[in-house]
Amino acid sequence: MMKVGYVISAVFLIITITIHLLIPSLRDTQGLILLSHMVSMLVVVTVLFLLSTVSRSMSSAYCVFNGFVFQFFFLAMFFWLNIMCFDIWRVIRATAKGIPLIGILSSDAKKFKLYCLYGWGSPLVITIVTAIMHFLPDELAKDITRPGFGTLTCWLPGDWEHLIYCYAYVATLFILDLLFIGHTMFTLYQAGSAFTCFAREVSVTAFNRKHLEAFWQRFFVFASMVLCWTADILSWKIHPLEIWIVTDFINSSQGFVIFLIFISNKKRRDMVKELLKKASKTCCPRVASSVQPSSNNEMATWKATSPPLSTSEPSGTTEEESVNKTDKGESD
């Protein structure tokens, strides 16, 4: 069942990654963070599938190599989740303080470079240290706990190895994520009454629509990761293994969970539909050319919705309306 879950997860991760690559408006800073998280998860489920099917026929060197690859991308998956939680906390906290949205997002390109340095660089440093400890000569590592890739399995063999080279970092990141999520929810709770009063005069606020959906998306991604990997750690110690069949299958199918969270938003579903329409026109131009708009109203609607939309922008709000509301908010 877990092998089937890995395949399902990989397929839906590839679909979601492809959608992000083909739709430019999804590749803002928040979208690129989610994309990096999904790429890490895709490599993790791929390696897990390989280890669960052909590990017995692997050479020792290839087995050790897979162990290092798995460690790097497994840790990267949680570091990018930490970046997701931090980024939405940063944006919502600044918005609650009244900082204009254009000021918050003005340096996003520079911030994403720092995110990459943290999200990819931290796992790389840990993996390099692990490799040094793994290949350290025996006479220099008498009292040191080494990773031991390829001794019993292609992964870490014992409890201390798991704790030192993997789970200690994951637990620390989970605690940080919980703090970011908790403080973000507290900020939303504090600002709720003020923004509710403000919404009586203006039907849509940048705070309510542009960031709440992004926050809940990251909250559900974080919650699914916490539940799945906590159950995985518990199943490692609590037997029999049969009682964890459901949680293990859900854990191996996390890519499908990410896909469900992604398409839960109507605006993103509309983007995907528009992408499919463009693809059908490219593949079947004769059929597409025979379909003509029935009225000028349809053309006007198409023109109003054709500019790229940010993933954090309100659903159903045009760019001109957003600018007017931002200007109004700044003048107030």
Q: What would you call the quaternary organization?
A: single chain
What form results from the Cα inertia axes? globular
Number of strands: 0
Radius of gyration, Cα only, in angstroms? 23 Å
- Alpha-carbon distance between the two ends: 57 Å
User: Count of helices?
Assistant: 14
Could you give a short account of the major beta sheet?
A: none
H/E topology pattern: HHHHHHHHHHHHHH
The poorly predicted ranges are 193-206, 291-332
Helical content stands at over 70%
**What's the overall average pLDDT, rounded?**
77
Strand content: under 5%
Structural class of the secondary elements? mainly alpha
What is the gist of this entry?
This protein has 332 residues and is mainly alpha-helical. The chain has helices spanning 2-22, 29-54, 60-96, 101-105, 108-134, 159-199, 206-210, 212-237, 245-252, 254-263, 266-283, 285-289, 296-305, 319-331. Helix 1 (2-22) packs parallel to helix 10 and helix 8 (212-237) crosses helix 9.
SSE map:
Layout: H1 2-22, H2 29-54, H3 60-96, H4 101-105, H5 108-134, H6 159-199, H7 206-210, H8 212-237, H9 245-252, H10 254-263, H11 266-283, H12 285-289, H13 296-305, H14 319-331
Helix pairs in contact: 1-2, 1-9, 1-10, 2-3, 3-5, 3-6, 3-8, 6-8, 8-9, 8-10
Features:
single chain, 14 helices, globular, disordered C terminus, 332 residues
Characterize the structure shown:
Helix content is 76%, strand content 0%. Mean pLDDT is 77; it is low at 193-206 and 291-332. It has 332 residues and is mostly helical.
